[in-house]
UniProtKB/TrEMBL annotation, chain B:
Protein name: ABC transporter ATP-binding protein
InterPro entries in the cross-refs: AAA+_ATPase, ABC_transporter-like_ATP-bd, ABC_transporter-like_CS, ABC_transpr_LolD-like, MacB-like_ATP-bd, P-loop_NTPase
Magnesium among keywords: no
Pfam families associated with the record: ABC_tran
GO molecular function terms listed in the Swiss-Prot or TrEMBL record: ATP binding
Biological source species: Saccharothrix xinjiangensis
Annotated Gene3D superfamilies: P-loop containing nucleotide triphosphate hydrolases
CDD domains per UniProt: ABC_MJ0796_LolCDE_FtsE
Length: 778, 235
């Protein structure tokens, strides 16, 4: 073995470029695989991962504190089927309606907890700190979200109490909206107690129900006020997280496929390039098995180093990507699972060894004489018909020679072509998804050049009249009806719709919905109705399909809504296009019923074609200084993350594919060193050599582009609707049908770009090769 | 051509050429002039600098010091691209191991050199066919190098070297890889070419070959010119 090791070590040192290429390709491929598999593993059950990481509660139960004692609850929790328990914690509904500027919800479910940790529901405090004394509150806000609340702000609550926000935290179990110390909660007069359970069996609703039955058995009747299973929370967040799953699955599979192709290409090329060396070894007495061992060691040694470094790189790269994608769950420390690392660290060397084994076996069978003469004896020409055809073509000779090169090594060219095609497929898919996200954003929140939205300023120095909507500091001088009349009368106005945004409670559950009430030309200026009809009376609502899905409703169902103590029974008459599941639409008549006299918070105006929007807004402000143009709205964070993830993964795949091309050209140049020398000796310029080598890959890139393009489009037609369905959103034609001819040009050329980028450096090196020695010594 | 060349144009002018590889000098102050129509054989033991001399004349390698002027062009002042264009137009090379492109048939191997100068594919093939015919291998024009005999390969290589009508034909051990009969044929070919005015620089360790082909003998020893004398060709 010593001889084998010495020879292999010498070969590794002598063939520095090959060693580096193998190490780098295996390293980058391993990093890609770790990233892809890590994302796949994380995406397959993001909620479960975050829930497990936080020791999330399987069951959250609220009990009447007057009907049951803490001792009874603790005793009940000790029954079989309960893995861990937290609580009982006192809780109360905090009225924070006096703080509308900071909070969307008028009430917060506050829980008294001294410690964010514990065996169940370890709350992630991602900004500020946990409550330490009276007068302090921590709010439940998903990491990265911005509800306009910062630590240091103060909240006025019922009973004249004032709480200072000291931190922002998130519970994936959604156990509270706010936390205070137990002493502080006692001051706020708790109404009930909360107990959090982790069950030994909680995979299905039936098992969770069994757990609930166990922990409530023997308690006084009426002690249980309500309960919530984590399965419900999982279903709700699945709408957000599920969006990423199809994307990550496709990119994960692409990443693995490209990496395997490139590694196989690099390794088999290295063995093929060393055939003559094999002949020398045999001639001095190495057995076929020893020769094979030399080659396996020679290839797997740098591969092993690359694999380990790549795994480290993949873990480092995956961390921010996973945190970005899944921070909504409050889990900021999601990393690549150990299984993924094990698979990558064992799988990649196995792929390398397998890829090396086949050509090494072939070399093993070569006779010493045959192997040692490789390179100096003339080879039988390959792809001869193609070469002849190209020789007569009306192309510069460097180009026609380059076009013929891929046919000389068809297997290597096929592997490279496949890698480029997959790279182009990724680019096509990423472009399609970017366009889909843009198309969806535009469909949901259309930007019209002929429209102006004017918002009403704060009334009486307080809040703007439209809850949660944009506002400004100048109060209106005219009444609602007068403003609308003025806007209709101003030159250029064609249609006007007044709107008011109000948070209503859905009676019968604990949910709320933001209702946008329309008055005036709602038909033209209101949301797009996908099915059913637009609300035109007091008892009607139009809701997005996500709302229907999340509430188990269908078109035609009825529900009761409540605003300021006034209730109304409404029918879902239409499905509207909206991004948020909690955004619903109604006619102004319903607002008149629930909150008579409410003034509009904003006015949507459609202008004549060519009318000056700035001039119209200035005229409106002149008529009533309380009317100002609405600020521009940004894209959704989900859209940004989807596009960001797609672009990042595409860049990684493109780089790996380009690395594959780099390797192919480097191998071709090495194998064809003599031919290059001959061509240069008869007058081929360095530039022509570069053109020839780059053309050889450019042609592959073009074909790869043409193959990858339809694959990418097909993948998009699967992934985009799957993402929409996962988000419980409507699958719109504009989201799926995003490829137009100009859009297709870019991915079609991406193959050429990948090929040219990958080929350029080794082509340049080939052009600079000293030729004198090879021509005389062969 | 055995006539006096003393008034003919100088095709190759080497002045104090030195070429170093790491510590050792392959060429050590070589000065040499070759006039048009001459057939010069460079001989010497292995490692004497014969091939290095050929490389610097062909522009395949650059001297460490000294100047190399071929057909009026100072190679030391040329870029890599200029050197390629120089080889394309001025130089024809024949190698011991032929150095044909295995993926191209004989005709295209020859035509390729012409196509690089901008000649159309049709014209290049016509000229190549003409040369192959003159060298007696036109019948093998569609055959690939692997199926040609050694002598045939070298004839194709000679045709390729001549296709652009070079000012200087360089031959590096042209018969070294051939059997005696094929070697004789190649020698006759080189003689014929020189007879019609082709300037020839031949590198060989074979004294008999030098005596048959060359009108002048330059012997290199340890990178220096040890002898430079006229020859009477042996029949």
């Amino acid at each position: 073995m010593t001889a084998v090791w010495r020879v292999a070590r010498g070969a590794v040192r002598r063939r520095r470029l090959q060693t580096v290429v193998i190490g780098v390709v295996v390293g980058v491929s391993t990093a890609t695989i770790v990233l892809a598999l890590g994302l796949l593993a994380a995406a397959s059950a993001p909620f479960d991962r975050a829930h497990a990481q936080q020791g999330g509660a399987h069951l959250v139960a609220a009990f009447d504190r007057t009907a049951v004692s803490a001792e009874q609850l603790t005793a009940a929790a000790g029954r079989a089927g309960v893995e861990a328990v937290a609580g009982p914690f006192d809780q109360v509904a905090l009225d924070v309606s006096a703080n509308r500027g900071a909070m969307v919800a008028p009430t917060l479910n506050a829980v008294g907890r001294a410690d964010p940790g514990g065996p169940v529901d370890r709350v992630n405090v991602w900004r500020g700190r946990w409550v330490a004394g009276p007068g302090e509150v921590v709010l439940d806000v998903p990491p990265g979200s911005d509800l306009g609340v910062r630590p240091g702000e103060r909240l006025d609550v019922q009973g004249g109490h004032r709480l200072t926000v000291v931190g922002l935290a998130h519970s994936v179990s959604d156990t509270a909206d706010a936390w205070v110390t137990p002493d502080q909660l006692a001051v706020l007069r708790p109404t009930d107690v909360q107990v959090l359970y982790r069950l030994t069996r909680a995979a299905t609703p039936a098992e969770v129900d069994e757990g609930l039955a166990a922990v409530t058995a023997g308690l006084p009747p009426g002690a249980l006020l309500g309960s919530r299973s984590y399965l419900m929370s999982r279903q709700q967040v699945a709408a957000e997280s599920g969006v990423y799953v199809p994307l990550l699955v496709v990119f994960g599979v692409l990443g693995v496929a490209v990496a395997v192709l490139i590694v196989a290409n690099v390794v088999s090329g290295a063995v093929v390039a060393g055939v003559r060396h094999i002949g020398v070894l045999k001639s001095i007495g190495f057995t076929p098995n020893q020769v094979m061992a030399v080659y396996l060691v020679m290839v797997t040694a740098p591969a092993a180093v690359g694999c380990v470094l790549g795994a480290v790189l993949g873990n480092v790269a995956a961390r921010p990507v996973l945190a970005e994608a899944f921070e909504v769950f409050g889990a900021t420390d999601i990393g690549v699972g150990p299984l993924v690392n094990v698979v990558a660290l064992l799988g990649m060397p196995a792929v390398v060894a397998l890829a090396a084994l086949l050509p090494a076996l072939r070399a093993r069978r070569l006779s010493a004489a045959e192997a040692i003469s490789a390179g100096s004896a003339p080879r039988a020409g390959r792809a001869l018909a193609v070469q002849r055809l190209l020789g007569g073509a009306l192309l510069p000779r460097a180009v026609s020679l380059g076009l013929g090169l891929p046919f000389a090594r068809p297997a290597r060219s096929a592997l490279t072509l496949a890698a480029v095609a997959l790279g182009v497929m990724a680019v096509t898919l990423a472009i399609g998804l970017t366009n889909s996200v843009t198309a969806y954003e535009e469909a949901v929140r259309p930007v019209h050049d002929d429209r102006v939205e004017l918002v009403v300023g704060k009334v009486g120095g307080g809040e703007g009249p439209e809850l949660g909507g944009p506002t400004h500091g100048v109060p209106p001088v005219l009444g609602d009806a007068e403003d609308e009349a003025v806007l209709r009368a101003l030159p250029g106005a064609v249609r006007v719709a007044a709107t008011s945004r109000q948070l209503v409670r859905l009676v019968g559950g604990q949910d709320s919905a933001m209702v946008l009430f329309y008055r005036g030309d709602a038909e033209e200026l209101g949301p797009r109705i996908l099915s059913g009809r637009r609300p035109d009376g007091p008892g009607q609502l139009a809701v997005p399909s996500r709302f229907l899905n999340q509430h188990g409703l269908r078109l035609g169902d009825t529900l009761t809504v409540e605003l300021g103590g006034q209730r109304a029974r409404v029918e879902v008459v239409g499905v509207a296009l909206a991004n948020s599941a909690a955004q619903v639409f109604a006619d102004w008549d319903l607002l008149e019923l629930l909150a008579p006299g409410t003034r509009a918070g904003s006015y949507h105006v459609q202008l004549e074609p060519g009318a000056d929007r700035r001039a119209y807004a200035a005229a409106a402000a002149a008529a009533d200084p309380g009317l100002a143009p609405a600020p521009p709205r940004g894209g959704s964070s989900m859209g940004v993350v989807v596009v960001g993830a797609a672009v990042l993964l595409t860049l990684v795949l493109g780089a790996v594919a380009a690395l594959g091309v780099f390797n192919t050209v480097a191998l071709n140049a090495r194998e064809r060193r003599r031919d290059l020398g001959v061509l240069k000796s008869i007058g081929m310029t360095p530039r022509q050599v570069v053109v020839m080598m780059v053309t050889s890959m450019g042609a592959l890139g073009l074909v790869g582009g043409l193959l990858g393009l339809p694959l990418g489009v097909a993948a998009h037609h699967v992934v985009a609707p799957a993402m929409m369905r996962a988000a419980q959103a409507d699958v719109l034609d504009v989201v799926v049908d995003v490829y137009r001819v100009p859009v297709l040009v870019l991915p079609a050329l991406a193959g050429v770009a990948i090929a040219v980028l990958g080929a350029f450096l080794p082509a340049l090196a080939a052009a600079r090769t000293t030729i004198a020695e090879v021509l005389h010594n062969e | 051509m055995t006539s006096d060349n003393s008034t003919a144009q100088v095709v190759v002018e080497l002045s104090a050429v030195r070429k170093e590889y790491r510590e050792s000098a392959a060429l050590d102050g070589v000065s040499l002039s070759i006039r048009a129509g001459e057939a010069v054989a460079v001989t010497g033991p292995s490692g004497s600098g014969k091939s290095t001399l050929l490389n610097v004349v062909a522009g395949l390698d650059r001297p460490t010091s000294g100047s190399v002027v071929v057909n009026g062009d100072d190679l030391g002042r040329m870029s890599e691209t200029d050197l390629a264009l120089f080889r394309r137009r001025r130089i024809g090379m024949i190698f011991q191991f032929f150095n044909l492109l295995d993926d191209l048939p004989a005709l295209d191997n020859v035509a390729l050199a012409a196509q690089l100068t901008g000649t159309s594919a049709g014209q290049a093939r016509a000229r190549a066919l003409e040369l192959l015919d003159e060298l007696g291998v036109a019948g093998r024009r569609n055959t690939y190098p692997a199926q040609l005999s050694g002598g045939e390969r070298q004839r194709v290589a000679v045709a390729r070297a001549l296709v652009n009508r070079p000012a200087l034909l360089l031959a590096d051990e042209p018969t070294g890889a051939l059997d005696s009969r094929s070697g004789e044929q190649v020698v006759d070919l080189l003689l014929d070419l020189n007879q019609i005015g082709q300037t020839l620089l031949l590198v060989t360790h074979d004294q008999a070959l030098a005596n048959r082909c060359a009108s002048r003998l330059v012997e290199l020893v340890d990178g220096r010119v040890a002898r430079d004398s006229s020859l009477e060709r042996t029949p």
